[in-house]
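// run 5 | inverse folding | seed 20
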C-alpha cells in the first residue's frame, strides 16, 4: 500500500511538472511567434524642430546676449582705466592706485566671464538632457502603442554631390543605410510633442495620441 501511495504521488508530481512545462513551452512559442517591428527616429531632427526646446534655448541665448552687453560695459571701463594709466607718471601715487583698480577690474572681468560661461553651459546641458529624456519617454509610449519591438536612432540626411569630405563622413556614420518609409516615426513623435507643448502653453493645439505614419 505504501508503495502504491508513493507511486500515485510521483505520477501526480510528474503530471504537474509536465503541465507547467507545456504552459511555458506554449508561452515561449507565442513570444517567438511575435514578429519584430523596427522603427527609426531622427533625434537631430526632433531637437531642431521641437518648439519647446527651441523656445527654452532662445531664452538661454537671450540671457547670453544680456550678459554680453554687461561684459561690453565692463570691457569699456577697463579700456578707459588702461588709457588713464598710459597718461600717468609711473612713479606717482595716483598711478599705483589706478594700477590696482585696473588689475582688480581685469580680474573681476575674467572671473565673471568664466562664471557666466560655466552657468550657461550647464543650463544648455540640462536643457539637452531634459529634452532627451522627454523624447525617449514619448518614443517608449509610441512603441508600446503601435507594437514596435525596437527603435533605432538614425539620420535622415543623405549624402549629396556637393557635400564636403567631413559632411560625407558624418552622414556615412549612420548605421541605417536603407529603410522603408513607414519605419520612420520621427514626424509622428515630433507632432505629438509639439501639440503637447502648445496645449501646456495654452495654445490651440491638443496633445492627441501619436499617430502612426511617416515623416512629411
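// decoded
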Amino acid at each position: 500500500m505504501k508503495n502504491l501511495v508513493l507511486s500515485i504521488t510521483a505520477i501526480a508530481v510528474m503530471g504537474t511538472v509536465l503541465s507547467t512545462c507545456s504552459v511555458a513551452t506554449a508561452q515561449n512559442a507565442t513570444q517567438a511567434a511575435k514578429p519584430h517591428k523596427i522603427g527609426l527616429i531622427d533625434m537631430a531632427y526632433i531637437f531642431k524642430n521641437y518648439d519647446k526646446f527651441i523656445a527654452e534655448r532662445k531664452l538661454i541665448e537671450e540671457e547670453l546676449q544680456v550678459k554680453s552687453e554687461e561684459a561690453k560695459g565692463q570691457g569699456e571701463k577697463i579700456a578707459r582705466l588702461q588709457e588713464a594709466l598710459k597718461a600717468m607718471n609711473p612713479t606717482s601715487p595716483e598711478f599705483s592706485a589706478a594700477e590696482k583698480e585696473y588689475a582688480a577690474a581685469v580680474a573681476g572681468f575674467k572671473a565673471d566671464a568664466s562664471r557666466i560661461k560655466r552657468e550657461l553651459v550647464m543650463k544648455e546641458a540640462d536643457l539637452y538632457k531634459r529634452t532627451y529624456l522627454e523624447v525617449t519617454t514619448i518614443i517608449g509610449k509610441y512603441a508600446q502603442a503601435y507594437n514596435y519591438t525596437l527603435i533605432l536612432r538614425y539620420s535622415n540626411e543623405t549624402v549629396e554631390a556637393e557635400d564636403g569630405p567631413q559632411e560625407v563622413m558624418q552622414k556615412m556614420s549612420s548605421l541605417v543605410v536603407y529603410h522603408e518609409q513607414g519605419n520612420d516615426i520621427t514626424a509622428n513623435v515630433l507632432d505629438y510633442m509639439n501639440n503637447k507643448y502648445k496645449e501646456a502653453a495654452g495654445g490651440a493645439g491638443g496633445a492627441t495620441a501619436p499617430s502612426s505614419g511617416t515623416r512629411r
